[in-house]
């Protein structure tokens, strides 16, 4: 892989620059500009960014070369904005990289971002400080684009931190509300924990590889000789980076912030907490796929964490009554799905699902926002119902999205979910092949295993197959639960009697056009979005020409995941497993149907059923309702203990060190009873005593150590 | 230790006076006495310098001691101004009465 | 004629060459401005505003900084004035930084002082004298110059701390600062005395030479204890000035009680100069090969290690519990001393890491502009009796005063270490130093130190966010009347801009830091080798760049 | 053997006693008086250490200026016994005393080990060494474990060594490790100021004293010469102190 465009492709800089300019204009002068201008500036910035993205992707496509054996390659476009740090051993540049992977991401970010900006113009129409909102939103787009376009880990990290800050600002946008401020803070802090792991992982990579550049790193890890140097740190560095991803992408164990983050304005939830920012983790692992595939234990960990997150979040979503919370847990669950795919080496499937998820989840959130907007900020589904007639457009688009996420055939979600499930059961890591364990060498890969895999031989992965099965089963169950809770949500909102109070009911209205247009566009995308990745068992029956187009995404991304797809991860069912793939598809359709049917039964046919179920499974319901008590657990374990630790050290500082055993004085008080008022700190002589004792102790330590030397 | 004073005698004497001054800073609550204790510390440092200088046959120590005296004078002036200032606020100069700033 | 002959005699008495007088230029300009300022103050029209005096002082400081810039290439490769001063880029860098901090804080002061009914010219005069002390302190090539300059720097600060005469808290702050400062200065002096006794000199380079001589003479065991006590007492005196654990104890009380603009000056310039002196004195005078000891066997590096870990833990954890913003910033200052100590420990643990000291220089720069900005904003709302001090007081200020809100946000984000501000890069750079040294030496202690630092900065995010949360998201408690002046607005804007500039275009500042550390005079021969290597590498790369 | 040891012990014990009374006595007035006496004892010790100039300065600056300032403040504030508070026992007091004593013992131990004779040799007094120019100089050859630091040095030897040192400056043969020369330019000769130039006639000008070491002549020469920068800085320091003291202590601000 080498940069084909030797000269700078500066459009990449423009993609990033446009939102930044928008943010600066709105941030500095927004308060003085008329509202309409603010809208135009923000949306215009995004539109420009989108246009530049389209141009860049077109350039990338034009860049295509076909090798003698028919392999298509797009190479990459790069742009070095400037040398950021330039000193001694540390050099870093602000550089951007557009390859097929970031092309997908850039289109999603700018495209969905543009739609959500347009939507926001309507949604936030009455807000006084709309300019601030748009400034943050543009700033977020800027940071997100830095993240996805970054050519080295440092740029990615800057974007990574930047989206965290913007997310925090946007969650807490409606100030004056302690809960929201707290939610923003929680999000930021949980993210910081993840970032902390990320930065350590970064350093680890840097000190092993000596560079942060993705291109150089990829080259390094795909060459057998140099990959050996990366091999020992793959597990620790990968785990640290993965932990960073769990923070940003809301996976176990750091997912707690995302549901609370729904406190922000709904379009923000749609953009940040569904479509773009939270997928950054998936993107990052895909970006660094060559690192992760170096160690199969790492991959298995990611897969299992992803699958468990998917499953547990789905179960929590079953019982939520706040419409946004259902969607939030659904997002966590779907992100788990993507991580599952990543962990199983199905990177294309992960990116595919990331894309379709961006469409339908953004649509769901925007639809929910439309509902909330229409119902005057009512979010409880128990007070909704029967909105189908009152808000027809919202209803229709919401239905499309629900169908898409539930995995009904011919809608986008079906294709991507199917690809993931198939990947889960069929992929196998070369390193897990039985017998090769423990003595695997790079030569062994290239000389024995890769030819075997390429030759279409089925590989026996022995006891590691259990990972595949566990992940697959969890995936299937999640698919079922997803279909169920999404349709539960849909039915509760749009079907049956309206349960809102009279006053609200009278005012329910359809949203303005600026909000509906994005809904319709996204609904369209949710429908057609899947056709860039038609499953193999269909495409194999197509003639040669259309085959390329029907497997568009896989072909498009093939070169990015070259290493992972052809080299490390091979199908364990041999060369022609499409019978099995069909079977998986059928199972997933059946499962989705069952879920939808059950939801229909419980929430439309016999609405008294849920209550009975609730009664029967009271304990379980409580458990789910309280989200497995994770928040409480975290609260006691981390938040409170940090505060406690702070208090303790504060106490230590003031009463033990500064107050110099004023605690001891308190003990003395019982005897002398006169020095009670000295319990408070602030006595300068105690400070001085403290300084002296510090000096003496240090002297002791140093001189004591000296005698030993 | 002999009866005849040597370098060690002066230095130990200096260390002793330094310690006394230091303890004075730490335990005397009257700000003026506290500052006197600081003067004691500075003086004992001077003694060290001068003793070292003599037994090294070197005048640098004298110069240093001379400058320390100047510094001590400057510090004393500021210190007493601050005492006066505090006295106007608190009607007292006990340093442990000054505990408004804490925690 | 009589005068002429006197001058000739003086000329005989003072062998320094004319070129050496250049070393005095930055300090002399500040002193001259201070002297002229006294005259200015005498002719002041009673009852009128003294804002022009602030501008005068600020312009003087800017002139000084400009002279530093002008002298940048005029390094004298030897100590001047009989080994009393150095003139090198290293000292010019720190002089410039101290001037910048002072100038910005002076511009932020007039309205604050007027509202506290203490609109006195002496305030600016004291800052000027303090800056003069700082300039000589970073230039010092001799413990005597260092100590006198240390006092010239400190005594005005004691006065500034108790400058608000109507405020009993200010009086208390001054008293506490003075007692603790004088106490620790006395301890340091005793240390200098012991060093003088053991080596017979107070010149940094000769101290080093004589320490080697001592150890070669097989005298290390007899003299070791005395030297080591001396070194540690000097270290503790400097650590007191930079507010490092366990000598941090004065900082929170003093910061809370002192007038806010002068706190900005105390918290930044003093720390800058303290670290500058620490690096110079310890890397020049006290060779680690001779002064072994302690847990890791690295002598005083071990002590700095304790400073680093302790300051970061204590500063960050206690800052979380504060509700007074000034006090929180004080504890952050302690934590920051810890971060800087990471760099100090890592870069000075072996001669071959010496160039890593540039991380400290960069970090100090970023810290200075951000903290000056933060204190400036606090002083903007610091009307007497209605001062904004607690978090709750900040309510809604970001919305009502968008400019101040933005400046505060930028500065606070920088302090919390969020990209793309200078603070992020500073922390990053410091941590990288620690990791780099840890990896190269295989010593895990450095890595642990960095991990503590990173955890600390995660905690730091918590209390800094609180500032933003309150400024934008909490209701206002009461009406706030700001103390707006043009100069202040410009100064604070400059701080915010500089913070962003340091983060976004750091190449130039890092270059400056690097060439400052490369040209530090008096470095021992084994360090000089490292510097030469670095210089060669830099030249080569510049060559490659040009091709 | 002369009266010197006797004076030393008188001054030393006096210094410790008066220092202790500064710290222990309750009435600040008595403390201040004890401090004045203490300063005089110190001045005496300086004389014993041949630091005549500093002894004078000590009496003038400390005993004269600083103590007057202290007494003035004590009088001004008119502190009476009942305002002085009780000496209360506090835990930190005990800890402070302990820490102080510990520091004393650490420092004392270090000092004793540093000033111990090298290799435990007993002091040998009065070795006659023949110099290059044929003259004989009596030097004290016993040294501590620290090179350059003499265990004991009587007045006469001190003076001889000091004059020898000045002579070697004039000759330009002193070693760099004497710490007296700009290091990077060994060619440049050092002008010994006239006041410091070795003049046997001038050596006995100071009454009651035969030597040059520690008198105001060489010190003043050094002050305006090698130490000119710190000297000027001290001026700045005093300026700062004056302004600071005035601004804080002034009763009314206009």
Which structural class is indicated by helix and strand composition of chain B? Answer: mainly alpha
* Order of secondary-structure elements of chain B: HHH
Tell me the span between the first and last alpha carbons of chain B.
Answer: 49 Å
* Main beta sheet strand tally, sense and closure of chain D: 2 strands, antiparallel
| Unreliable parts of chain B | none
Strand numbers in spatial order across the main sheet of chain D: 1-2
Describe this structure in words.
The complex is a heterotetramer of chains A (709), B (103), C (547) and D (254). Chain A is mainly alpha-helical and 709 residues long. Helix content of chain A is 72%, strand content 4%. In chain A, strand 3 (77-87) and strand 4 (90-98) form a beta hairpin. The longest helix of chain A is centred in the first third of the chain and has 32 residues, at 178-209. The two termini of chain A are 55 Å apart. The mean pLDDT of chain B is 88. By secondary structure, chain B is mainly alpha-helical. The longest helix of chain B has 31 residues, at 60-90. Chain B has 3 helices and no strands. Chain B has helices spanning 7-27, 31-56, 60-90. Chain B is elongated. The longest helix of chain C is centred in the middle third of the chain and has 32 residues, at 168-199. Chain C has one domain (22-546). Chain C is globular. By secondary structure, chain C is an all-alpha fold. Chain C has 22 helices and no strands. Chain C has helices at 2-13, 25-42, 51-71, 89-107, 110-115, 121-139, 143-161, 168-199, 204-216, 220-242, 250-257, 260-285, 300-321, 325-348, 358-380, 397-400, 402-416, 422-441, 444-473, 486-504, 507-518, 525-546. The model of chain C is unreliable at 1-14 (pLDDT under 50). Among the domains of chain D are: 1-82, Four Helix Bundle (Hemerythrin (Met), subunit A), CATH 1.20.120; 177-254, no CATH class. Helix content of chain D is 55%, strand content 3%. Chain D has helices at 4-24, 28-48, 52-77, 91-115, 155-171, 216-223, 228-249, and strands spanning 127-130, 136-139. In chain D, strands 1-2 form a two-stranded antiparallel sheet. In chain D, a hairpin with a 5-residue loop joins strand 1 and strand 2 (136-139). Chain D is globular, with a radius of gyration of 23 Å. Chain D starts with a helix and ends in a 5-residue tail after the last helix. At the A-D interface, helix 31 and helix 32 of A face helix 4 of D.
């Amino acid at each position: 892989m080498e940069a084909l465009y030797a000269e700078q492709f500066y459009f990449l800089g423009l993609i990033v620059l446009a939102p930044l300019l928008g943010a600066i204009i709105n941030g500095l002068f927004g308060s003085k500009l008329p509202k309409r201008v603010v809208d135009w500036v923000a949306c215009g910035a995004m539109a420009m960014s989108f246009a530049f993205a389209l141009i860049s992707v077109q350039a990338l496509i034009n860049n295509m070369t076909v090798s003698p054996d028919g392999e298509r390659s797009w190479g990459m476009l790069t742009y070095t904005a400037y040398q950021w740090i330039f000193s001694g051993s540390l050099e870093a540049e602000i550089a951007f990289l557009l390859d097929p992977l970031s092309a997908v991401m850039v289109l999603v970010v700018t495209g969905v971002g543009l739609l959500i900006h347009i939507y926001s113009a309507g949604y936030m129409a009455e807000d006084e400080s709309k300019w601030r909102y748009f400034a943050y939103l543009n700033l977020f787009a800027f940071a997100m684009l830095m993240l996805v376009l970054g050519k080295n880990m440092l740029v990615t990290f800057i974007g990574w931190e930047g989206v965290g800050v913007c997310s925090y600002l946007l969650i807490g946008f409606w100030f004056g509300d302690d809960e929201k401020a707290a939610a923003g803070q929680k999000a930021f802090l949980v993210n910081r924990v993840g970032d902390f792991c990320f930065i350590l992982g970064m350093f680890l990579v840097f000190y092993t590889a000596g560079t942060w550049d993705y291109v150089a790193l990829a080259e390094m890890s795909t060459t057998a000789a140099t990959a050996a140097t990366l091999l020992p740190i793959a597990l620790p560095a990968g785990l640290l980076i993965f932990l960073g991803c769990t923070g940003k992408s809301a996976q176990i164990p750091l997912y707690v912030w995302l549901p609370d983050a729904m406190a922000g304005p709904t379009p923000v939830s749609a953009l940040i907490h569904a479509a773009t920012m939270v997928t950054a983790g998936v993107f990052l692992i895909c970006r660094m796929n060559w690192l992760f595939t170096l160690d199969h234990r790492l991959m298995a960990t990611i897969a299992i964490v992803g699958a468990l997150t998917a499953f547990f979040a789905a179960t929590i979503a079953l019982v939520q009554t706040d419409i946004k919370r259902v969607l939030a847990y659904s997002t966590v669950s779907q992100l788990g799905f993507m991580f599952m795919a990543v962990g199983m080496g199905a990177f294309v499937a992960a990116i595919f699902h990331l894309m379709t998820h961006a469409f339908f989840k953004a649509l769901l959130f925007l639809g929910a926002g439309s509902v909330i907007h229409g119902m005057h900020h009512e979010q409880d589904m128990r007070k909704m119902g029967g909105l189908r007639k009152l808000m027809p457009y919202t209803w229709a688009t919401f239905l499309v999205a629900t169908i898409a996420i539930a995995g009904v055939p011919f809608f986008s979600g079906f294709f991507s979910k199917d690809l993931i499930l198939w990947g889960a059961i069929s992929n196998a890591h070369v390193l897990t092949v039985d017998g090769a364990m423990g003595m695997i060498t790079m030569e062994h890969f290239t000389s024995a295993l890769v030819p075997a895999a390429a030759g279409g031989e089925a590989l026996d992965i022995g006891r590691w197959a259990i990972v595949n099965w566990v992940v697959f089963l969890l995936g299937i169950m999640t698919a079922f639960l997803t279909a169920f809770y999404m349709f539960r949500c849909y039915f509760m909102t749009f079907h049956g009697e309206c349960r809102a109070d009279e006053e609200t009911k009278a005012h329910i209205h359809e949203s303005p056009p600026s909000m509906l247009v994005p809904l319709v566009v996204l609904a369209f995308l949710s429908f057609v979005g899947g056709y860039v990745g038609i499953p193999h068992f269909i495409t194999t029956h197509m003639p040669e020409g259309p085959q390329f187009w029907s497997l568009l995404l896989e072909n498009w991304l093939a070169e990015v995941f070259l290493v992972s797809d052809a080299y490390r991860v091979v199908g364990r069912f041999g060369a022609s497993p499409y019978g099995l793939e069909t079977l998986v598809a059928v199972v997933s359709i059946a499962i989705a149907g069952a879920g939808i049917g059950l939801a229909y039964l419980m929430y439309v046919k016999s609405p008294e059923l849920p209550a009975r179920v609730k009664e029967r499974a009271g304990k379980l319901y409580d458990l789910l309702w309280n989200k497995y008590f994770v928040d409480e657990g975290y609260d006691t374990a981390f938040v409170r203990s940090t505060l406690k630790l702070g208090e303790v050290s504060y106490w230590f500082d003031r009463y033990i060190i500064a107050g110099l055993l004023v605690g001891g004085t308190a003990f003395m008080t019982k005897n002398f009873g006169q020095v009670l008022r000295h319990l408070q700190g602030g006595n300068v002589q105690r400070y001085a005593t403290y300084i002296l004792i510090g000096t003496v102790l240090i002297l002791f330590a140093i001189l004591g150590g000296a005698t030993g030397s | 230790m002999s009866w005849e004073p040597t370098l060690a005698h002066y230095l130990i004497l200096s260390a002793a006076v330094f310690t006394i001054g230091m303890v004075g800073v730490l335990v005397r609550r009257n700000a003026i006495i506290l500052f006197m204790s600081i003067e004691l510390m500075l003086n004992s440092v001077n003694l060290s310098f001068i003793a070292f200088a003599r037994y090294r046959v070197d005048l640098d120590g004298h110069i240093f001691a001379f400058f320390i005296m100047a510094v001590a004078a400057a510090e004393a002036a500021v210190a007493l101004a601050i005492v006066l200032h505090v006295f106007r606020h608190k009607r007292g100069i006990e340093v442990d009465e000054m505990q408004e700033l804490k925690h | 004629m009589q005068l002429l002959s006197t001058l000739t005699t003086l000329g005989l008495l003072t062998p320094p060459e004319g070129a050496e007088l250049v070393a005095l230029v930055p300090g002399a300009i500040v002193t001259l401005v201070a002297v002229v300022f006294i005259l200015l103050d005498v002719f002041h029209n009673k009852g009128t505003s003294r804002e022009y005096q602030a501008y005068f002082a600020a312009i003087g400081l800017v002139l000084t900084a400009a002279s530093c810039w002008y002298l940048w290439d005029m390094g004298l490769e030897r100590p001047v004035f009989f080994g009393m001063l150095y003139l090198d880029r290293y000292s010019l860098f720190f002089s410039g930084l101290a001037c910048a901090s002072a100038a910005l804080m002076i511009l932020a002061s007039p309205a604050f002082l007027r509202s506290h009914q203490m609109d006195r010219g002496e305030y600016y005069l004291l800052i000027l004298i303090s800056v003069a002390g700082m300039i000589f302190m970073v230039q010092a090539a001799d413990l005597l110059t260092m100590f006198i300059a240390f006092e010239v720097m400190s005594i005005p600060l004691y006065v500034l701390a108790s400058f608000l005469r109507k405020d009993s808290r200010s009086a208390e702050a001054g008293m506490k600062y003075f007692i603790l400062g004088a106490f620790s200065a006395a301890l340091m002096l005793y240390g200098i005395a012991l060093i003088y006794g053991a080596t017979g000199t107070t010149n940094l380079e000769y101290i080093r030479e004589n320490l080697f001589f001592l150890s070669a003479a097989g005298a290390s065991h007899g003299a070791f204890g005395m030297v080591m006590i001396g070194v540690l007492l000097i270290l503790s005196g400097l650590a007191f000035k930079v507010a490092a654990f366990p000598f941090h104890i004065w900082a929170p009380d003093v910061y809370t009680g002192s007038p806010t603009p002068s706190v900005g000056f105390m918290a930044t310039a003093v720390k800058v100069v303290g670290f500058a002196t620490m690096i110079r004195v310890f890397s020049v005078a006290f060779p680690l090969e001779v002064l072994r000891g302690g847990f890791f066997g690295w002598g005083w590096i071990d002590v700095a290690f304790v400073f680093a870990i302790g300051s970061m833990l204590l500063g960050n954890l206690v800052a979380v519990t504060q509700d007074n913003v000034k006090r929180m910033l004080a504890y952050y200052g302690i934590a920051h001393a810890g971060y800087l100590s990471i760099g100090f420990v890592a870069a000075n643990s072996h001669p071959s890491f010496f160039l890593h000291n540039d991380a400290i220089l960069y970090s100090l720069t970023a810290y200075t502009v951000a903290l000056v900005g933060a204190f400036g904003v606090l002083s903007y709302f610091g009307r007497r009796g209605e001062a904004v001090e607690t978090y709750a007081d900040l309510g809604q200020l970001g919305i009502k005063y968008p400019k101040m809100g933005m400046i505060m946000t930028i500065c606070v984000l920088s302090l919390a270490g969020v990209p793309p501000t200078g603070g992020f890069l500073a922390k990053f750079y410091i941590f990288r130093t620690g990791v780099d040294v840890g990896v190269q030496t295989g010593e895990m202690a450095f890595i642990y130190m960095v991990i503590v630092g990173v955890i600390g900065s995660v905690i730091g995010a918590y209390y800094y966010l609180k500032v933003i949360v309150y400024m934008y998201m909490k209701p206002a408690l009461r009406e706030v009347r700001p103390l707006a002046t043009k100069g202040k607005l410009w100064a604070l804007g400059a701080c915010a801009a500089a913070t962003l500039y340091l983060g976004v275009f750091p190449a130039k500042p890092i270059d400056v830091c690097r060439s400052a550390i490369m040209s530090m005079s008096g470095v021992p021969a084994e360090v000089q080798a490292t510097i030469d290597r670095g210089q060669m590498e830099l030249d080569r790369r510049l060559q490659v760049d040009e091709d | 053997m002369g009266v010197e040891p006797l004076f030393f012990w008188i001054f030393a014990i006096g210094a410790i006693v008066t220092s202790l009374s500064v710290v222990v006595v309750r009435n600040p007035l008595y403390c201040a008086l004890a401090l004045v006496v203490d300063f005089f004892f110190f001045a005496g010790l300086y004389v014993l250490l041949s630091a005549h100039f500093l002894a004078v300065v000590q009496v003038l600056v400390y005993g004269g200026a600083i103590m007057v300032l202290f007494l003035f403040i004590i009088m001004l504030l008119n502190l009476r016994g009942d305002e002085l508070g009780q000496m209360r026992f506090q835990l930190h007091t005990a800890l402070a005393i302990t820490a102080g004593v510990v520091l004393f013992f650490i420092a004392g131990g270090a000092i004793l080990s540093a000033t111990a004779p090298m290799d435990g040799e007993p002091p040998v007094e009065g070795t006659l060494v023949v110099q290059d120019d044929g003259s004989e100089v009596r030097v004290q050859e016993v040294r501590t474990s620290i090179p350059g630091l003499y265990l004991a040095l009587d007045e006469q030897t001190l003076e001889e060594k000091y004059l020898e040192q000045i002579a070697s400056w004039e000759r330009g043969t002193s070693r760099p490790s004497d710490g007296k020369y700009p290091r990077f330019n060994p060619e440049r000769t050092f002008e010994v100021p006239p006041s410091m130039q070795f003049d046997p006639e001038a050596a006995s000008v100071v009454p009651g004293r035969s030597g040059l070491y520690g008198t105001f002549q060489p010190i003043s020469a050094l002050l305006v010469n090698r130490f000119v920068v710190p000297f000027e800085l001290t001026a700045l320091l005093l300026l700062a102190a004056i302004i600071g003291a005035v601004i804080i202590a002034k009763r009314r601000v206009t």
